[in-house]
Amino acid sequence: MSLHPRRARPRPQWGTVAWLTVVWVLLWGDLSVGNVLAGIVLGLAVTTGLRMTPLAFHGRVRPLGVVRLATRFAIDVVRASFEVSLLALRPRYTPRGAVIGVQLRSHSDLYLTMTAELCSLVPGSLVVEAHRLTGMLYLHVLDVRQSGGIEAARRAVLDQEERVLRAFASDAELAGTGLPGVRA
Amino acid sequence: MTWVIAVCGVLLTAGAVLAVVRAEKGPSILDRTVALDIVVTTMIAAVALYAAIERRADVVPVLVVLSLVGFVGSVTVARFAAVEPEGEGRVRTREEVAAEDKARREAEESTEGGATDEHGGAAEGEVR
Amino acid sequence: MSWDTVADVGSAICLLGGAFLAFAAGVGVLRFPDLLSRMHAGTKPQVLGLILVLVGLALRLRSGGAVWALVLVAIFQMLTAPVAAHMVGRAGYRTGKVRHDLLVVDELTNDLDRLRKEDES
């Protein structure tokens, strides 16, 4: 078996194909056999034609963690938007920002990306730079006073990462990060 | 119901106009990119508002396309943003443009006596 | 009070909320002093405003496959807005458009300077 990157037969990534099929079916709006088959064919064509590094998802999905992550995220998004709107509309106040660096616990690309996405949509912070190799995330905080201080903002990012890990990480990965109390 | 439409329309128009003002003022290309991204998203909201009033479902693909195009546009501009020289982002007045043209023409006339370059010479400025 | 009027009232409320947030995003992008703050105005109220408007539209349409495409638009918007903001912020840092004097704490510049000094020594 050749290990040459271009000569080796590419194995189809079924997770990505499934996601692309879901997108295709949602675009057409009705769930019929033709749409699903067309989605699978297109997904296979896209993933073999435009090759990207496959995403290694070794984790496992814990339903309780996912529910907690989703509800907390929804509450935070609503609160965030109203806070930023208030800040924009308050007559004589200009916000004082800061750029903080946070060292994340896990070293995986997937959790870094998810934490970065969620932190950008949630009150007060916006991801400016992410260093994959060291696991550092740099965020811009909109108003230091409104976030309760710099340490509170750092704590919020680490809490967000903890919720993501508790929702999606496997047991081995959780043990490696040193988080207390792994619940099944 | 009509006053809801009127209020929504006024709010969306005001938001878009303010974003366009920032696109004019913004001292750099990235400020303008952010402002125009907001204009595109406001357009999506306006098309959705129209679809809600008329109860039409066939303009929904327009929303999908607009959301994708808006994102790709701002990412492309950010990817190729180069270092702008100081004062380049400002809109110049007519006198300043005339003065710059005159200075450039004089510089060209003075260097024409020297070595002439085929094809205009090498690429100038930073390419990132 | 039938379900139709309830859905219409709910849709009207959602549309109003969404338009208000879009207006707040426009005000924010004009008023904030710095490139990075203006990106905040472009990401957060904008996304929630769009989601509210889409929910209002879904309540009005009430049936049909178009509602699922609206779910897709909302997911796309939530996935791509932070990425666009991140790329603009990174380009701003690299081309020197960020005003460091307005920041209270700037750890990214400190770390980059430290790494550059380590590379030179």
TrEMBL record, chain A:
> Which InterPro entries does the protein's record reference?
Cation_antiport_E (IPR002758)
For this protein, the record's Pfam families field holds:
MNHE
Name the source's superkingdom: Bacteria
Q: How does it sit in the membrane?
A: Multi-pass membrane protein
Q: Does the keyword rRNA-binding apply?
A: no
The protein's location, in the record's own words, is: Cell membrane
Which of UniProt's keywords are assigned here? Answer: Cell membrane, Membrane, Transmembrane, Transmembrane helix
Concerning NCBIfam families, the annotation shows: PRK08965.1-5 (NF006521)
Family per UniProt? Answer: Belongs to the CPA3 antiporters (TC 2.A.63) subunit E family.
> This protein is called what?
Na+/H+ antiporter subunit E
Q: What organism is recorded for this protein?
A: Cellulomonas edaphi
UniProtKB/TrEMBL annotation, chain B:
Q: Which residues cross the membrane?
A: 33-53, 60-82
Instruction: Provide ranges: composition bias, Basic and acidic residues.
Output: 87-108, 116-128
> Quick one: where's region Disordered?
84-128
Q: What is its main location?
A: membrane
Q: List the Pfam families.
A: MrpF_PhaF
Which superkingdom? Bacteria
Q: What is this protein called?
A: Monovalent cation/H+ antiporter complex subunit F
Biological source species: Cellulomonas edaphi
From TrEMBL, chain C:
Is the keyword Ion transport in the record?
A: no
Residues of the signal sequence?
Answer: none
Q: Which ranges does the record mark as transmembrane? A: 6-30, 42-61, 67-89
Q: Which Pfam families match?
A: PhaG_MnhG_YufB
Q: Does Translocase count among this protein's keywords?
A: no
| Keywords for this protein | Membrane, Transmembrane, Transmembrane helix
Under PANTHER family, the record lists: ANTIPORTER SUBUNIT MNHG2-RELATED
Family classification? Belongs to the CPA3 antiporters (TC 2.A.63) subunit G family.
What is the name of this protein? Monovalent cation/H(+) antiporter subunit G
User: By which gene is this protein encoded?
Assistant: mnhG
